[in-house]
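Re: duplicated header lines in exported structure tokens

Our pipeline writes sequence and tokens for each protein into one text file. With two proteins the header for the second block appears twice in some exports. Here is an export where it did not happen, for reference. First protein block:
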Amino acid sequence: MGKLHIVDHPLIQHKLTIMRDKHTGAKDFRVLLDEISMLMGYEVTRDFPLCDVNIETPMTHMTGKKIAGKKLAIVPILRAGLGMVDGLLKLLPVAKVGHIGLYRDPVTHTPVVYYCKLPTDIDERIVVVCDPMLATGGSASDAISMLKEKGCKNIRLMCLVSAPEGVSKVQNDHPDVEIFTAALDKELNENCYIVPGLGDAGDRLFGTK
């Protein structure tokens, strides 16, 4: 079963509480999502392998450490996932970015694919799938399936807020994928929104309804 990592650093929890507040406007919501994504990036990349490199400091020669040639791709699920990309790129500026477009059918609550554009060498990269909300898990599971069809073997899912139902869905469908989330909330309501959640992340991010 894919491991669930709850990234509960005090700074992340503080910023997430502000994001949850319904009075927080789109500008602050965007800034906070960017900041939390960067902070979560430290945990998502914690196990990246290192290799030794010889360098010269102003004082002497030494053997230092660098990431061992692992290439990364960041793949946001449109549209809310876009708000998580810049935070990760601040840590990993050479990463390539793909996009998967999914929307939730308002009646069936199942995901519908409308766009997919990925780096040509996506199968050679560690892939971080980004979506602020892991609700039913349908969109995330479908996005991961699309990536696996392209040959991806090392996929991680990074979310802001998750529901138990969504975590179970991804773990059952993709037991090899690790999930990183800032909070595991109580449940989904009758409209498949996370409770207590923070509302529709895409609408709050872009100021739409």
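Second protein block, exported in the same file:
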Amino acid sequence: MSTPSTLVQVTDLKVHFPIYQGVFRRQVGAIKAVDGVSFSIYKGETLGLVGESGCGKSTTGLAILQLQALTGGQINFNGQDIAGIDESQMRKMRRHMMMIFQDPYSSLNPRMTIGGIIGEPLSVHQIGTPQERAERVQELLRLVGLNPAFINRYPHEFSGGQRQRIGIARALATNPSFIVADEPISALDVSIQAQVVNLLDDLKKQFGLTYLFIAHDLSMVRYISDRVAVMYLGKVMELGSRNNVFDSPLHPYTRALLSAVPVANPKKERARQRIILEGDVPSPANPPAGCRFHPRCAFATQECRAQVPELRNLSTQGKPEHWVACHHAEKLA
């Protein structure tokens, strides 16, 4: 079995937001939104990134694209470290890495036509002549299932699902190899969500795209993702293949998340055990010592309270990698 080629390598990524107080605006602390995250994204795959609100998922996606300043860590894209390059170099790289934003209403400029919105990346990167750009915009509209005649309409004339398709077309404009999809379906009606996810999956197969798919909806993540990373309070708790994480979760937090997902079969729903987490998520400005999850974990010991667990690969030889940050993962397997 050949080893897949790595497109994006994130190492010890940190994004801290300073907290200022007083007349002289002295820094008194920091919100550790992302605090030491490491993972790889292979060419042609979809890595699903899941977790509760405020765990750092969206900040991680923004930081990878250098749309959010880093506090520390490395980001290697297609063999090049992009964490330390200047803005002019980063601008050249951005045509290869695009983003689909969460809110299809606020992410489109209401003063621009659809043709202008989709064609803007082509103009910024000086791709093609005006005529070629116009033809490319019409081609992109066809790709995402919209009428090319809509090119001169404005965002307010479209529904939420249509606006998200316009956002997808804009992300595809420069033929990128990597796309961060930041909760692209959370603001859409349930009836439209499946259509958008299927469109993303079809485009991935057609153009060989690589996705970081950030979402809350675990059923959608299981449907579209090849591998899944679970985040909690700024750290990755578990990372593995879709089937490993959903069918054989090793971290107590992952188990709790999956137990909250409704099951369509009434008999299975009644028979399964629900895991109810006690307490609230700690503040990222003052995270607990040791394992971030230990205040809410039923299996926590003194070791969990004192020592930060390393992200370890617990898969056996010849099987897909399954990483988990838990001192007692072997006992829970």
